C-alpha cells in the first residue's frame, strides 16, 4: 500500500507517461527509418559518386584542364544554381508571381528551397514575416480542421438518423420532437474517428491522383514522381528536388498556376487534417499500452486510476462520494450519514442537496452550450483551467470525435 501511495504521488502521471512513451516510440521509429533509408540509398549514392569521379577525371584528361581549375568552375556553377540561375530558361524568381509562390511556401512551412532571399534586408524581413505568417496559417489549418470535421459530423449524423429511421428505432417526427429521449435519441452522438480517418484518407488519395495527373501532363514527370511530389508538398516536407510551375512558359499558363495553387492549398489542408486524425489513433494506442502497465497491486489503485481516467466528467453525487471517502480515511463520519446508515434510510437530505446542485450546474452548462450552437457532452471539472481541454488541433478532435472523449 505504501508503494502504491508513492506511485500516486510520483510526477510520472498518465500524461507524462504517454509523453515519454511517445518520445521513445518516435526515437525507435527514426532509428528504423534511418536504417532502412541508409540500406536503400547508400549503395546508389556510392555508385553515383564513383561515376562522377570517373567523369571528372576523363573530362580533365580529354580537354587538358587541371582538376583544381575544373573544381573551381563547378563551385561557381553550384553558387549560380543556389541563386536560381539555370542553363535552361526559367521564369523569373522574384517577379510578383514568383515572390507570391515563395511566400506561400514560407507560411505553409513547405519551404522548397529553390528560392531564398540573398540580401540581408530580405533575410531579416523573412524572419518577421514568417513568424506571423506561419502562426496565422497554422490557425487557418486548425479552423479548416474544425469545419471539415463539423461538416463530416453533420453528414454522418444525418446518415445515422436515416439508418435508425429505416430500422424503426427513431420516430418519423424525431426532428420536430427532440425531447423524446427514450426512443433512440441521438443526444451526445459523435462520429467515429475511424470513419473520419477513412473519409479524409479517400479524399486525400483522390486529390493526389488528380493533381498527379495534371503534373504528369503539364510538367512532363512520370506518374510516380508526380505522386511523390504531391505527398512531399501536401505534407509540407518540401524537399525541393521536384518543384512545379518553374518553367518560363506553359500552355494555358494562367489556368495551370491557378490549378496548382488550388491543389496545393486543398492538399495541405486535407493532409493536415488527416495527420491530426492519425495522431488521435496513435494516442489511443498509447493509452492502451499504458493501461497494460497500470498498477494492479490493490483495489484502491484501480479506483484511483478509474477516477483519473474520467477526471473531466463529474456525475451527480461524485463530490459527495469523494468527500465520504476522505472522511472515512480520516476516521470521521458525518452525523447525518451515520444516522441514515443506522435507520436504514436510502438517501439523506444532505446528499440530495449536493446532487441537485451538481445537476443544476450541468443543466446550466447544457443550456449555455446549446444557446451558443455548440452542444457537447456534459462535462464539468472543478479544477478546470484554460488548457484542461487541450490546445489546438488535438482539442478540436477531442471535442468532436467519439472515441477521444471517452479516453480522456
TrEMBL record:
Reaction(s) the record says it catalyses: K(+)(in) = K(+)(out)
Record-linked InterPro entries: 2pore_dom_K_chnl, 2pore_dom_K_chnl_THIK, K_chnl_dom
Alphabetized UniProt keyword annotations: Cell membrane, Ion channel, Ion transport, Membrane, Metal-binding, Potassium, Potassium channel, Potassium transport, Transmembrane, Transmembrane helix, Transport, Voltage-gated channel
Ranges of residues in domain Potassium channel: 91-148, 204-282
One GO molecular-function entry: outward rectifier potassium channel activity
Coiled coil: none
Keyword Zinc: no
Stretches that traverse the bilayer: 20-40, 99-117, 124-145, 193-215, 227-249, 261-282
Topology class, membrane: Multi-pass membrane protein
One cellular component term from this protein's GO annotations in UniProt: plasma membrane
UniProt keyword Transmembrane helix, yes or no: yes
Pfam families linked to this entry: Ion_trans_2
Compartments, as annotated in UniProt: Cell membrane
GO biological process: stabilization of membrane potential
Family in the record: Belongs to the two pore domain potassium channel (TC 1.A.1.8) family.
Protein name: KCNKC protein
Source organism per UniProt: Aegotheles bennettii
